[in-house]
Amino acid sequence: MDNRVVITGLGVCAPNGTTIDEFSDAIRQGISGIRHQPDLEALNFSCQIAGKPPLSEERISQYFTPLELRNLNSTGILYGVIAGLDAWKDAGLNIENNNEPDWDSGTIFGTGTSGIDKFRWAINKIDALEIKKLGSSVVIQTMASGVSAFISGKLGLGNQISTNSSACATGVESIMMAYERIKTGQARRMLAGSTSDSGPYIWGGFDAMKVCTFKHNHDPEKGSRPMSATASGFVPGSGAGALVLESLESALARKAKIYAEVCGGHINSGGQRGLGSMTAPNPTAVQRCIRAALKNAGIEADEIDVINGHLTATTKDALEIENWKAALQLSDCSFPYINSLKGMIGHCIAASGSIECVASILELSEGFIFPNINCEDLNPEITALIDSKCIPQTAIHQPINILAKASFGFGDINACIIFKKYSHE
Amino acid sequence: MNKEEIIEALKTIIEPYSEDAAALAQIDENTDFIKDLKINSANLVDIVLDVEEKFNIEIDNDSMAKMLTVKATAEIIAQKSKANAG
Known about the structure:
The structure holds two protein chains of two kinds.
Chain A: E1 5-13, H1 20-29, E2 34-36, H2 38-42, E3 49-51, H3 57-60, H4 66-70, H5 75-90, E4 105-111, H6 116-127, H7 137-142, H8 146-155, E5 161-162, H9 170-183, E6 189-196, H10 200-208, E7 239-247, H11 248-253, E8 260-269, H12 283-297, E9 306-308, H13 317-328, E10 337-339, H14 342-345, H15 352-366, H16 380-383, E11 402-409, E12 413-421
Parallel strand pairs in A: 4-5, 4-6, 9-10, 9-11
Antiparallel strand pairs in A: 1-7, 1-8, 2-3, 6-7, 8-12, 11-12
Helix pairs in contact in A: 5-8, 9-15, 12-13
Chain B: H1 3-14, H2 21-25, H3 44-55, H4 61-66, H5 70-85
């Protein structure tokens, strides 16, 4: 069995938009969601700016019961549930309170770590000899699979329920895993996505590694500068992205809105060999991953209209472009458009891939290419490789057919996925 | 606090843990938290924490294991409160 797989629902909880309409509008206009964070300043962080999805209590209360909210201290679960349930509703699927689970639907919803604030609270209680006061809510919020457990319970999903974790490749990987499950006929519908907590305890480790910028504490919206000559480290972000993947057959049968088709992709690792390490990508592996993704999808390099890069705003941006160039083997004048959402929302770590895929799908289905912001001073190492017209700085409105999205993560891991506009035959 | 007052206070504590409005409206001494109110058994430890806070008492593991009905819970609260006062 080899099902075609399409995307029929989208949900997002991003620093610059927490509904699909808001987010779509924000990415078209190049609106930044990066803000100064007083808690990071108070804690002496070098980087005191970050991206957090703005959510009102009223909005949150639409997704959780008062009892769930009582002890909820996991922003990742909050973002994941909101994006996940919104994607489900966007796909025109009901949230039914049946006795019988929906055996044909499951979820792969990734994260790096879950409920880090809850975990901190629990550790402090234990150390203060108050173990009993933990109550029943610690495990369900701090287990890595907390987010998929919350989502599947709310939707009554009866197929595979799992949480993947592969650093910054988590989001793309979740979609690949969901895609494969449907392609091979083991599920009819999968909610794919990923989430990442907000706050000092998730971002602190990156701050200490000096991979975040410390130069923009007073102009947060200018801080995240992928592909810029003055890129000085990434800006941490948080949130969640969610996509409903479905067999084409199922989508057509229920006359669902089809946003795009997943053509295929590839996941690999550089094995931390050669130039690869725990934190640096092995370029050979990155190039292999991109080429294998195209082969798996049955797409030629010159068919790609847009690349949605990983491009975090560190010194590695130029290396990434070099890798794309080497992998695609296209002449300089035929290199596709390339953009990075991180200029607007920062690097949402485990959630980056899924939020960026939601943006990619919107570009395909609505026919636009979102602008790269904060790279008016393009990195000369990059313009030596590709023409600056490949890096749009204002939105381009035109139909696009094929988009390649890649994410790379610590541990020397790579994921690349190919999406195609769905032509309603 | 007499038994009726304890049960009244207990009702307020229990309410958020049950989604069965009809059963909540009929709470009496014989009400069983899991069978009658359909409370998730994992939440029983949370009810005990709320009881400890509200009545300013400490509940040991043995007593906790018995707190499955309104009656048993009210008795343990009365007993522990008395021990406190004494």
